[in-house]
Specification:
352 residues, alpha+beta, Jelly Rolls, twelve-stranded mixed β-sheet, three-stranded mixed β-sheet, 26% strand
């Protein structure tokens, strides 16, 4: 339907036009996209399409003797079919036409139902994103309608919009591993803050924290795009590349990152290589309801290397408890409080 035709037609006429398109043969891919765009323009388009679908179902009922039925009877049948008193028709002179072969009732009802489903899917699919989330300590894998897979880490949430020419995922909080189904005609954007990570077919991890977001490419290539201008905000990232995005913008590209360490969380593992104990404690707090609080700045800055299970905080506490001068206790809130006595740590061990 051209723009000129659309301007000359009422909304009801436009809905009737699309009803005919979906009834007579298989609509083309371009027509389906145009229909989705038309439906998403306004709620009135959804309402008009539903009215047309109800009217077709009403006039296709077996007890009607088309075209001899009075128009008043048609109105009554349409109202009964809709089940609501919101469907009103204005009587016009009823012109008798030559009888045409009537489609079978199941086919007519099937067309009406298909149009109804298409309208609802188009409207809600375009304007209301699909939401997926995990709670503290939970991980979840989701297969999207386009064949892509998203694995959510602990306490994470995404909103998904799959459109005809664009796929958009908003990472509201947390971390997710994306395995994008290849489709060159439909870019796949993961939006976080003021930037988007854009890919066509690849695998990458996006980790959103309170003051920064880290993007790591597991395989393939991605681009970091500015959300406001749509321009590329960093060099093209390839396998084992990582960038950190904060309030100052996109940082320099880190090459040769160990992607197995980055994605170890999918196996409920935490791998640390010369990481400060304060960061290690915060990682455990992401996965467990009982917090670990390191009260000593000296202890927080001390580096450690090791591999732990994310759900076994006791192994981390055992490591801390075995260090000289470290004391682990439990607060009234249930948190594990870790203190450090530098004097005790510097004293030589007692001799027997």
């Amino acid at each position: 339907m051209t723009r000129e035709h659309e301007e000359l037609m009422s909304i009801t006429d436009q809905a009737a036009y699309w009803s005919v398109v979906f009834r007579d043969g298989e609509p083309s891919a371009a027509e389906k996209r145009e229909f989705v765009d038309w439906v998403a323009l306004a709620p009135e388009h959804v309402e008009a399409s539903l009215h047309v679908a109800r009217a077709r179902a009403a006039i296709s009922r077996e007890k009607l003797r088309w075209p001899d039925t009075l128009v008043e009877d048609l109105i009554r049948e349409a109202k009964e079919t809709s089940g609501e008193n919101v469907f009103q028709l204005h009587p016009r002179p009823f012109r008798r036409v030559e009888p045409r072969p009537r489609r079978a009732l199941p086919l007519a009802l099937g067309v009406a139902a298909s149009l109804l489903i298409a309208v609802c899917f188009a409207w809600y699919g375009r304007l209301r994103p699909a939401e997926f989330q995990t709670s503290l300590g939970e991980q979840r894998s989701i297969r999207l309608a386009d064949g892509s897979r998203v694995t959510l880490n602990t306490n994470s949430r995404i909103e998904v919009r799959l459109r005809g020419n664009h796929r958009i995922v908003d990472l509201v909080r947390g971390e997710a591993l994306f395995e994008v189904a290849h489709d060159a005609s439909r870019p796949f954007d993961v939006r976080t803050g003021g930037v988007a990570v854009r890919a066509v077919g690849t695998q990458f991890d996006v980790d959103r924290r309170a003051n920064h977001t880290a993007v790591t490419v597991v395989e393939g290539r991605v681009a970091v795009v500015s959300g406001s201008s749509g321009t590329q905000a960093s060099p093209l990232l390839v396998e084992a590349d990582r960038v950190v995005i904060d309030a100052e913008g996109v940082g320099p590209v880190q090459h040769g990152v160990n992607v197995n360490d980055v994605t170890a969380w999918t196996q409920q593992q935490l791998i640390f290589r010369r990481r400060p104990l304060g960061e290690v404690a915060e990682e455990f707090n992401r996965y467990n309801g009982t917090r670990v609080e390191l009260r000593s700045p000296t202890l927080r800055n001390q580096e450690v290397t090791g591999t732990f299970r994310s759900d076994q905080v006791a192994s981390f506490l055992n490591l801390l408890g075995g260090m000289p001068g470290v004391h682990v206790s439990t607060a009234e809130t249930g948190a594990y409080v870790v203190t450090y006595d530098e004097a005790a740590a510097s004293r030589p061990a007692d001799r027997k």
